[in-house]
Each structure stands twice: as C-alpha cells, then as structure tokens.
Amino acid sequence: MTFSAETPDEKLSTLHQRLSEQLHDHNYRYHTLDAPTISDAEYDQLLQQLLQLEQQFPQLVTPASPSQRVGSVPLDKFAAAVHGEPMLSLENAFNSDDLIAFDTRIKRFLATSTEIEYLCEPKLDGVAVALTYNKGVLIRAATRGDGTIGEDITQNVRTIRSVPLQLHNDFPDLVEVRGEIYIDLADFRRLNQLRRDAGETPFANPRNLAAGSLRQLDPRLTAARPLKISCYGIGKLIGKAPQTHQQLLDNMAKWGLQVNLVQTRCVANIHAVISSYQQLLERREQLEYEIDGMVVKVNHRDMQDELGVKSRTPRWAIACKFPPRQAETILKSVRLQVGRTGAVTPVANLISVNVGGVNVSSASLHNWDEIERLDAHIGDTVIIERAGDVIPAVVRVVKEKRTGTEQTIPRPTHCPVCNSPLVQEADEVVPRCQGIDCPARLKESLKHFCSRGGMDIQGMGDRYIDQLLRLNLVSSIADLYRLRKEDLFQFERMGDKLADNLLAAIAGSKNRPLANLIYALGIRHVGSHTARLLAGQFGSLDKLADAAHEALIGIHEIGSQVADSIVSFFTAAKNRALLADLTELGVAPPSENRQPTGKLLKGKTVVLTGSLERFTRKEGEELVMQQGGRASGSVSSKTDYVVAGTGAGSKLDKARSLGVAVLTEDEFLELIAPGENQ
Ligand code: IVH
After folding, report:
1. Are the C-beta atoms of 393 and 208 separated by less than 8 Å?
2. Within this chain, do residues 534 and 613 fall inside the same structural domain, yes or no?
3. 514: which of 107, 136, 320, 589 fits an S-S bond (Cβ 3.0–4.6 Å)?
4. Statement to judge: residues 213 and 277 lie in one domain
C-alpha cells in the first residue's frame, strides 16, 4: 500500500480508525478472552498496515494507537510522575500468629466482633506500576518511586501487549490502576540461556529481569522482552466505585485488564485465610510465574476506607511472605566450566544448604566481573538465590562474617581442560578457550548435538559421551555416525543389545527435521526457536549456509548479532567440512516443504479439537496447511470445518451453535485425500 497525499483524507482516517479498532479487538480477544480469531502473522500484517499509514501521516498517531506497542524513539531520561494517590507498601506477616494479630487489630479498630471477609491474592514478584486511564485511554504508566513520585515509563509499558491501551465495557472516567509487571519463569529461563550463550551475565531472578526491561530508555528494547502484567487494585478513581474489592477485580477484568482471578480466593474469616495461604504455598511450584507470598485484603471497601492508612501502609491489607528462596552458606571453592563455545565460567562449590525445599551444593558465579562486583572470596559466607527451578546463583557476600582467611579467586589464563590460552574479547564478559580441539568443548558440543531438542539420540547421555572421548573414538560430531559396533564394545558394561540400540538411535537421527539439525550444530545465539525460524525460511541447510547477513536480518525476530553469528559459523572452514562430512554420512533432514501441495482446503479455516486418534494435532494442522488451508485454535463464524475427536467440548458446542460443519477424523481424511483412507 502506498500513500501520496500530505494530509489523510477522510477515507484514510476511517481506515486508520478501523485498523486501530480491529487491532484493539484482536488484542482483547488474545489476552483477555484467550480466544484469538486470527493468527499472529495476520495480526502483524494489520499492524504493519497501520504503521505504514502512520508513517505517512504522523498526525494520525494517538496515545491509544496500537502502533505505540512497537516502541518509539529513545528518551534521555525518564520524567517524574506524581501519583494521584500515593502508592503504599504492605506490612508483612510471617506466620499465622501475625495473621491472627492483623485480624484482631482490624476488629478492634472497627469495634466489631463479626468475622471479616478477606480476599487472598497471589503476591507476584515483579515491578509495581500505576496505569492511568483517562476516558478509557492509557495516558500514563509510572513506577512506584518513593510512593509519591515515580518515573514516567509510559512508552515502555505501551509495548506490553497484555496492557490494554484502551479499556472496554463501562469503564470509569478516570482510574489509576495498580499492578505488577513480571516475566514468566519459562521466558526468564529462555532469555537467560540466550544471555549465557552470548557470554553475558544472566539475571539473578525474574524480578530483576522485569525491572531491567522496564527501565530501558529505548522502548524498542522493552518491546523485545516478553513482559506481562497482573493488576490488583486502584488508586484514584472518578466514576462508580464498587462495594467490594472482589467486585473491583471483576470490573477491572471486564475493562480488559489482566487480573489473576484464577488464583484469588474470597474467604469468610482469618482461619480460612490461613488455610488459603497453605494451599497457595503448595501451588507455588506449579505456577508459571514467581510469587513471593499472598496478599490479604479486607474485602469491603467501606471497611477499607474506615480503617485507612498508617504512615505508608494500609491497615486493611497485609503481605504473608513465603519462605525465602535465598539461603546463607559457605563458598568452599570455585571450579571452572568450559562450554561448547569455549566460554569458561566459574561455578561455586558450596556447603550444601536447603533453599526453599531444595538442596543446593553449587551455584553460578557467572564471570569474573561478577566475582569482582560481588567481591567474592573462597571461604566467604554467601547468600544464594534460587528462582523457580532455575540454577541457583550467588547474589551477595556477607562481608560482616569475614575472618580474614578468605582467599581471592584468580582469573584463569589457560583452559582447565586442554591448557590452551584463554582469550577475552573486549565486548565480552567471559574468557574463551581457543583450543579448536579442546575435549571440553567437544564434549559439550556432543551433549548438545545428542540432546532432545537437537538430534535426539536416545541413550547417548553424559556417561557414554565421556567414554567416547576417553577412548578417543570421536574427534568431531560427525564421528558419531562413523561408530561401529566393535567401537562401542570398548565401553564399560556394553552388551550386544545395548550396542545395537545405540547404533540404531544414531542412525535414526539422520532424518531429524531440519530445525533440530540447525539447533544441534550449536551455533551461538541460535536456540530452538531461532532454529525453527531458519528452517522454515531456508528449507535446507545448504541454503542457510549460503545465506548473506542481509537475508538473515530480513527475517522477523533475527537481529544483527544473531545474523553475524550464523554467517561466521558457516564461513569457518572447519564447520563447512563438518557439514560436508555429515551429508556424506547420510545426515539428511527431510526437505521442509512449506508450499501447499494441494488446494482442497484453499481459503478454508479448520479447527481441530478433542483427542484425535488417526493423527496428532500437529500432523492434522500440517495436513490442513498442505492443502492450502489455515488451522486455527478457536471457532468463530469464519470457521469452515471443525474436526472433532473424542471428548471435544466447548469448541464443538460453539461450532454447532454457529452451524459450522463438523467432521470426524475419517471424514476429514476423506475430504483431503478422497478414496485413500478406507
Ligand atoms: S496491594 C495498598 N496486591 O507487593 C496496597 N500488592 O508492598 C498495596 N504486589 O510492590 C499493594 N502483588 O506491587 C498488592 N496482589 C497484590 C500484589 C502486590 C504484588 C506488590 C506491590 C508492591 C508490594 C507491596
């Protein structure tokens, strides 16, 4: 689409408005209703249209335009933001006695002996924010700061897709919404892995990552981080006020805000609060995000008003803290780990200690800059932290406990395994082993190559890889495919059957999908997600190997650093030789044919639901795509077919109510390959 006029005519303004409304609506369906009706790619297409239009006519840009999610120009510094009402903090309760005392205080203050109704909410461990909505439009987002004045981070918060830029359904004239911005544990692990791969210091916990992402002066950096929000209250409100906190949360959800209603409980008295706390503590490990406690609030808002606030904390709420994920122990020694990219990282050997229910005897120290920053010494008393099931890290040294016998941790100059000199590039935080044939690097490369997300060679675990190296049976990844049965017989306790199984697993891996092979090669910055993108885009390893930097950065989600890393991997003679070897040895991923092979479902939208027996959901979706159709996750009036397996539920009901054609698996197969499936 191209535009030439300087000012948008009415048609273009209407188009802009329509696109904005569509994007808001799809966002609401995706984040609030959890029932998208278009794919991510289609959403991106609409957004691109809107961006093009706004580029041509900047006067169309409004604070609520969905374009604001992309991130605009960087700031020099954040402006101050005065809160409409102070952002308070909470008093803490550490046990049930503290909770009973809280309840007693409330009853005394209200001069009542009637039981108090409480709302129990998860206490998310993220960053507190205040969102101001004027006539339903997000006009400002601010950090807590000192509680009275925070920092204006509107540009950054607008990039978070689960923050509505525009409220829905009967919202008040003005409202200051309070919530917590956080990052899921899975995203935290993924981003930290990328940082480790890049030789950067990982974040100690999801909270630090969320805080770091929000405090970027360049909103495009924030936009690249998968931040989420959970809203739990309000500050200033002009409009109808609900009677209870529960009603307030329900209303907020109706306006399109993310509220954690699933984990919130309304209970009749303080004893029920105590059991609610126990239950939430038990659910803690299953949650996809980190919580550090439960917040208890008096449910009736008139009681809240009567109770009022002390200097900085309300009398009507309290935070019940969970046992900390931190523990104190002694740093006994430091061992060096050599990764597959040659990165040498220090790992602390600790006196074993229980951290929130898990025994921990080693923790990451990340790199020597970090050791210096922490001022860590051998013999030091240290605080370690474990977030979710993430690798524990040393976060602080308890210097007051020093005895004077602590020893410095020297920077290594040579690889602890192959003794090659280590080199640290100016822009890196870790030294790297330069030994091309370093056994430690090879070992890590082999482990990665055989791993589940890689070539998935079952049975080829650490123990056998160690033996392969010790017996000098492999000096490159390709050598795995040269192994013979008699080689394996040199292993300790290797039987005929086991050897056959291992060889079969190795041979079976030759036809893994291209994405697995790309990931398995262990190219820096190329995790499984990027590998899938590359496989989808290039379709063959040869094409990827010849791809130029420009072609790579043209792919959505691939930046310059990743492109550089891919190009330099495939330029290295040693890696070219490896690819040639692998091909010669028969490693041949099936070609990724993304083009439809038929058109029996051209232009049709198909939803697969229920438990399917003749194919998996993924295979079914592939079949739809091969016939030129589109597989969708939710049923709407635009759905052409619903393929229903056994136990199909609400999607089937919806299809029936909308009069959408419902097919059995057999009928579906018959539709796409008539006559072949009897
Ligand atoms: S209520 C007056 N509810 O915990 C009410 N806070 O000191 C004050 N937090 O940083 C906050 N989840 O951002 C409340 N469900 C929840 C919460 C919550 C997390 C954070 C809040 C603040 C700290 C309280």
Report:
1. no
2. no
3. 589
4. yes
